[in-house]
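Teaching assistant's notes for section 4

Start the section by putting this record on the projector. Ask students to predict, before seeing the second block, whether Metalloregulator ArsR/SmtB family transcription factor will look compact or extended. Collect guesses on the board.
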Amino acid sequence: MAFDKTKDYGKEAEMLKVLGHPIRLKIVAGLCTQECNVKHIWECLGLPQATVSQHLALLKNKGIIEGTRDGVEVHYAVVSPFVRRLIEILDAES
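Reveal the predicted structure now:
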């Protein structure tokens, strides 16, 4: 494999930094299997709603997830193909 000095991995590096937290990895892994709202996420993970909301905001800001409004609820899903592939690799290793 040759080195490519023209390849810019800036976006991927930023995503990896955000995914470097175990809670965010758990959230993203769960959202790869099903779209759900913040209440479902914090109930499943046993975390405070504020904590989950902060992690979701970081993931959303990096373009990893998106939220779709359904009435008063927002349902989150992973939209980054790069992150979906990464989670598949991590799940295959465990």
